Structure formats: structure tokens, C-alpha cells
TrEMBL record:
This is PH domain-containing protein. The lineage of its organism: Eukaryota, Haptista, Haptophyta, Prymnesiophyceae, Coccolithales. It holds the Pfam family PH. Residues 23-45 are annotated as: Disordered. InterPro entries: PH-like_dom_sf (IPR011993), PH_domain (IPR001849). Residues 55-157 form the PH domain. It comes from the Eukaryota.
Length: 158
């Protein structure tokens, strides 16, 4: 059978330890100690988060174009968080107290980051190209685009 890897991110180390125990792993305690699980390799992100090593680099609201035929997909407002592990996570919800994580963009796999209309003073939509998908995002303003670009660009390989 194929092995799956699940990356979890908890708000506190204690929560992460509780989740790991519930999933059948051995917790290292909230001090970030080591755990001896059968899948230590697939647990690398969990260990990093439990040790408090996952750091938020930048966050904010943007619009994200949905997948599907461009005629039918529309821009949806999402909350984005860029972490130092080079992952851009996005969340669904209308306010911070009711958001749910929906997915992520692996910036380490991204091959391109660019504005779609760089000379347009009203359209700040940009694209992140990763194998198999083009992510289209709109930060809403020139200042927000510049903030996002300055944080995202260093995350690309090459």
C-alpha cells in the first residue's frame, strides 16, 4: 500500500501533542521533545511545528481564483499565511474567528511569480506557477502586491 504523509499545523505545541496521541503516535510533550513513531520520516513537519520552528513570514487577505474552466471560476476571498517552510496556506471564512484551512501552495516547487498586468494601476492579480497548476491571486493593491512579492520571491527555487 502507498504511504501517505499528512502535514498538520496546530496553534500550540500542546494541541499538536494531543492530536498526535489521538492519531496513535507518541507525543514528545509540549517542550518539543522527540517522539519515536513508526513514521518518523513522514513526521518531519510535525516535529518542526512541535518544536516551534514553523514561523509565519507574512499573512493577509487576498482573492484566489478557483480551479476549473476560467469561464466558470471566480475569485474568492481567502486568508493566506506564508510560513518559513516555503508553504503558502490558504483558509476559507469571512472572519478570523471562523476560518478553516483549505489548502496550500508549495513555493519550493514554484517556477514563476509575476503580475498578469504589470502596467495596470487597478489590476494587481498575479500568478504563481507550480507543476500542474497556475495559482491566480489578487492582493487588491499595489502596496499589498509589493509586500507579498517581497516575501514570496525569496521562497522560489532559482
Amino acid at each position: 500500500t502507498a504511504e501517505r504523509t499528512y502535514n498538520l499545523s496546530a496553534p500550540k505545541a500542546e494541541d499538536l501533542d494531543e492530536w498526535i496521541e489521538m492519531l496513535g503516535g507518541e507525543s514528545g510533550g509540549s517542550d518539543g521533545g522527540t517522539r519515536s513513531t513508526a513514521r518518523r520520516e513522514s513526521d518531519a513537519t510535525l516535529s518542526s511545528a512541535a518544536a516551534g520552528q514553523l514561523v509565519e513570514v507574512h499573512s493577509g487577505w487576498m482573492k484566489k481564483k478557483g480551479q476549473g474552466p476560467s469561464l466558470f471560476s471566480k475569485m474568492q476571498r481567502r486568508y493566506f499565511v506564508l510560513y518559513d517552510n516555503r508553504e503558502l496556506h490558504y483558509f476559507e471564512g469571512t472572519m478570523m474567528d471562523n476560518i478553516t484551512r483549505k489548502g496550500r501552495i508549495r513555493m519550493a516547487q514554484a517556477t514563476e511569480l509575476m503580475r498578469l498586468k504589470p502596467d495596470d494601476g487597478k489590476d494587481f492579480t498575479f500568478i504563481i506557477k507550480v507543476p500542474g497548476r497556475d495559482w491566480i491571486l489578487d492582493p487588491g493593491s499595489q502596496a499589498a502586491w509589493e509586500d507579498w512579492e517581497s516575501k514570496l520571491r525569496p521562497m522560489l527555487d532559482g
